[in-house]
Amino acid sequence: MRKALVVLVVLVLMPIVLAFPSAQQVPQRVVTIRDAETEALVRAVAHPLFRAAGLDPAAIRITLLQAWAINAFVTTGNRLFIHTGLIQQTESVAEFAGVIAHEAGHIAGGHVSRLPEELRAAMLRQAAAMLLGGIAAVAGGGRGAGEAGIGIAMAGQNAAMRELLAHTRAQEQAADQAAIGMLAREGWSPLGLARLLERLQDQESLQVSRQDPYLRTHPLSRDRLDFVREEAARMGGAERAPPPAIEARYAMVRAKLDGFLDRPEITFRRYPATDASAPARYARAIALHRSGRRAEAVTLLDGLIREHPSDPYLHELKGQVLFEGGRVRDSLGPYATAARLAPQEPLIRIAHARALVELGDPASLRRAAQELDSALARDREDAAAWRLLATARGRAGDRAAADLALAEEAMLSSDFAAARMLALRAEPRLPPGPSLQRARDIVEASRRENLSPEMRAAEREARRRRER
Fold this sequence. Notes:
5-stranded mixed β-sheet, signal, metal ion binding, mainly alpha
């Protein structure tokens, strides 16, 4: 059984932070995680719960933050941030679903929108800071790699202000009540949420700096825990098991995060060679890859692929191992298979395109641009994909299209002056059509007078980071 970690930091990120520490106080940036498999799992759990709450899943942006501590929180603009530790440390997908339903309860209850204007503005600034932090694929760095960025030192923060920033107990009970309704409508038992709250309750007697951030930003009372237990009992009957496919995917994702975010020696201890389960072999393959033992990693992955030939994420990982091991041409087959099996996953197409761009011949560059166009049609907010598209277009000799792609990247990076300059440079060289119209749209949107408050906050944060 995994025990909820007691985090030894001064103050891990709360839903709102009213002041930013100096650069010296933040040795590392917040790290956001992008991984197709993990994001697909989160959507599979979260989207039905959002719909059960009367929310549009497309209107809620979910971001994964690399941090071992258990936490999830909502900020302004319907942004839901989830720590990777919430997946790594929960013992079942039912516990994870309970937390997601609770956060959906905060969104449906309008708890963020009811905050005073100055607090919502501070939340907006903090969200901008997180979204402009480092972005990584699920890759090494160790459990503490993102922790310093997320564990922003706020030792001078007033205790009364911390209480203002955390959700009130009344809001917590309202979110719990909404969560239980959502879980019931989707066939989940609230016992998962109850079990997680019981484990977190063991930390209530600890000093604040040693508690998990979820407990500090989501006040837990005996009444709250009793309410969840009573509702679970009222629903009656044995706990209904989650769909086997989701539970199995959850185990694979947890193993994947362990393999990429923990040191390899820790992964080998947690998932010993005597454990022949699919998640254990998955984690060991990743640890072998990160240890430079890529031939052994490919052997393990080939065994998993023989057992699960339709799993796109196994093929994707094999492609990654081969690509990062310098076998670029060999990586194309696994990446293409993964993209065929999961055509709706933009991150897989982007990984495939990266390998094609690395080859660099005209046919590969054309195929890379096609993959990136397909990926960006589904997710236009991936700045790295726009930069990769600019590289593919530029190497193919299409400088106007390359400049337009760089303008898109600059917009997403909140460098609006650069976006305007690049769009203006591209505009006279683009043929009539959607690309020309998009360049004109960027020119207009990047005018100072047209920037929204959120865009201005993001621009200030981006400028602050560039000036460090």
